[in-house]
């Protein structure tokens, strides 16, 4: 699969605007500033396919990318406090509507969690929601390069009790700086494309 051939398709800010699904989709979910755009850029080997911002809450739309027979949906980050209630409601309707849409063929959700910290309440709610909706997902632990060896071991050990269903989860440590986890994630995407 030529990951560098991925293309930006479109952005949608309201659930009703979403086009009918035509292909299998892989979604990227996570709190604001967890590194979704950086992961997308590393996954596709492109520097600025997804816009990276140091300001949380920048992605307020679902951004679709296409590659071969798949669509990739970059969902707005959740849990960012500095937006209005009406904006939060719009995000919730957009994300919830997308994930719960029975028409969509969501093959997988990459659920991003910052490896340096315990999962937030919002992270845990999202994981419970994905389980409830029976959506397959992989937990991607972002910013892995920011931890030294012993900090990393401590966090991995703590996640066993912090993440629900830990024993049943696929967990991939990831770094946009060192490329750790990129090949594993690409392998998962290729499996889905071949299904």
Account of the 3D structure:
With 195 residues, this protein is of the alpha/beta class. It has a single domain, classed as 3-Layer(aba) Sandwich (Rossmann fold). It is 32% helix and 22% strand. The protein contains five helices and seven strands; from the N terminus they run ββαββαβαβαβα. It has a seven-stranded mixed sheet with strand order 1-3-4-2-5-6-7, with helices on both faces. The protein is globular, with a radius of gyration of 16 Å. The mean pLDDT is 90.
Helix and strand topology:
Elements: E1 7-12, E2 24-30, H1 36-43, E3 62-67, E4 70-74, H2 85-100, E5 105-114, H3 121-132, E6 137-142, H4 149-162, E7 171-173, H5 182-194
Parallel strand pairs: 2-4, 2-5, 5-6, 6-7
Antiparallel strand pairs: 1-3, 3-4
Q: What are the defining features of this structure?
A:
alpha/beta, Rossmann fold, 7-stranded mixed beta sheet, 22% strand
Assembly status: single chain
- If classified by CATH, what would the architecture be? 3-Layer(aba) Sandwich
The CATH topology is: Rossmann fold
Major sheet summary line: 7 strands, mixed
- The mean pLDDT is 90
Integer-rounded radius of gyration: 16 Å
Tell me the strand order in the biggest sheet: 1-3-4-2-5-6-7
Helical residues, percent: 25-40%
In the predicted model, the low-confidence regions spanning at least 5 consecutive residues are: none
Quantity of strands, as a count: 7
Number of helical elements: 5
The helix-strand sequence is: EEHEEHEHEHEH
Shape: globular
CATH superfamily: P-loop containing nucleotide triphosphate hydrolases
Our estimate of the beta-strand percent is 15-25%
Structural class: alpha/beta
Into how many domains do the coordinates divide?
1
């Amino acid at each position: 699969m030529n990951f560098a051939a991925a293309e930006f398709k479109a952005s949608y800010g309201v659930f009703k605007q979403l086009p009918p699904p035509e292909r299998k989709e892989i979604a990227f979910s996570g709190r604001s500033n967890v590194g979704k755009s950086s992961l997308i850029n590393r996954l596709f080997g492109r520097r600025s396919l997804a816009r990276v911002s140091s300001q949380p809450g920048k992605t307020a739309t679902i951004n679709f990318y296409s590659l071969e027979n798949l669509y990739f949906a970059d969902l707005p980050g959740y849990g960012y406090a500095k937006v209005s209630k009406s904006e939060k409601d719009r995000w919730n309707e957009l994300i919830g509507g997308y994930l719960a849409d029975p028409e969509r063929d969501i093959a997988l959700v990459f659920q991003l969690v910052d490896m340096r910290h315990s999962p937030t309440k919002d992270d845990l709610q999202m994981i419970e929601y994905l389980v409830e909706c029976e959506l397959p997902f992989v937990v991607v632990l972002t910013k892995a390069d920011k931890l030294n060896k012993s900090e990393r071991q401590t966090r991995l050990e703590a996640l066993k009790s912090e993440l629900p269903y830990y024993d049943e989860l696929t967990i991939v440590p990831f770094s946009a700086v060192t490329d750790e986890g990129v090949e594993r994630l690409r392998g998962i995407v290729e499996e889905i494309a071949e299904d």
